[in-house]
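Slides due. Your pick:
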Amino acid sequence: SLMDLNFMNYRAIIAILIILMAVYFVPAPAFSSADVSGEIQLRIEQIGKAADYRIAKHSMHGKVFLADLYQANNFKPVWDDGLAEVLGDEIQNLSYDGLDPADYWFPSLDALLGKKQNRSLDAAQQAELDLLLSEAFVRAYYNLLVGKVDPERLDENFNFPRPLNAEKRRPAVIAMLLQGRVADIFARARPPEHAHRRLKEALAEYRAYAEAGGWPTVQTGAPLKPGDSGKRVAQLRARLSVTGDYTGKADDPNLFDADLEQAVKRFQERHGLDIDGTAGPATLEAMNVPVQQRIDQLRVNLERQRWFMHENHDEYIVADIAGFNVYWIRNSEIIWSTRAQVGKDYSQTPVFKDMLRTIVFNPTWTIPPGIMARSILPNLKKDPDYLGKKGYLLLTHDGKEIDPLSVDWSKIDKMPYIVRQPAGPNNALGMVKFLFPNKHLVYLHDTNHREHFADASRSFSSGCVRIEHPFDFAERLLAGQEDWDRNKIDATVKSGETKWVTLDQPIRIIIAYSTAAARNGMVYFKHDIYNRDASVLKALDAPFMLRRQDG
């Protein structure tokens, strides 16, 4: 009957509901919070003893941090669902720092979190999920704090990676983490300078250019200059419109007008080119660099800033090798700058930091070993009177002068003497040098080749940094010290006597290499004169690893 049929349908529906409840409402595993804590404590003990302890194939690099964190929390889980979600969001945001979120958010985490939401984790799995989240956190924090790339693996001369100081830092980080302040921890790990934040903004802008299709190519050909007309001018205008260098509205897009000339000059200034308003070969080459290459450049230089920028929040000098400039920075603002000349490709200026302590007026120049081997000795073999013609002195190591003509240079393969250029207007160091003793024998100084400061690309030296306004620099360094004013500086130079002056207030100096930087709200790209970006980018895209000093 109809009643029987309805009853049978009802029983079938009940049966189906029971099956569905069995599938979707799995009872929670029978374990207590104490069981999870026990599993966490067991693994912390194992991590401490193992050379390489892995969970779901992932090495636990943050051994000491994990031990201190869980001891401080009585081995209870740290990550509830809400805090795990916050961590996931913060790790995704690392892409804005030029880092790869995939280095920190392991695939295992998604699988385990899914099981946790379905209440199908046992105590051991829940412990491992919590430990993996903590490892993800500490890796991300570590790379924000000191960088992902170990610069000393790339360059043995590099001496300014930020010390981790983990023992002092760890308790505060753990306290903040146990308060759920993941975002605050990451924010404090980042360099605080405006310039770093602006470079991050630029990375987002250039990624937006890429997502929109990049920028149009300007066809190569004859230089484009004001008054020119044609399809290539329209391409030039379109290219500069993408990056905001051109913001006008032309009546004739094919005409190279005054607004376009200003846009070209703006682009040239931002890319370290001769600022002439003409789109010649070098300018067009810079315009046609693919947007992905600029993105990589920004990522590389955000990474470089993580190596050293944290400790330089007060006052310091930066010699910007690739930018051919020296900056005096106070409280993140440039208070003085001057153009510079740096080392040629075969005598590259090294990257390092030191303390500028001494000024020498009317310096002599002792030829460094590299130039001795590369230039002085070969020239003496050709012409024993080479030093006399140059006005250089040949000295023993105890300062005794020797006649170069008395030496049989054909029998000498390694220079056993010192060669020194006396002080004077023709001295290679000019009339003043600025010393920060270092193994590279590199310093800042005046020059007798001032004509090169007019060039856009200024790699002319033998490794030292030549500066355009050395006496202004000396005056600033000596401000407030005894009676050292500009009149005394000028009189000292005029005397011709070599005078050493120790600074009452030594100042930190950084010889740095960056190919993208932000100043006064603008982003500048510079030519990679020593081809150093590629190695940094390769290491930045490699798997996570600890720096050698932290391993």
Notes: The chain has a mean pLDDT of 90.
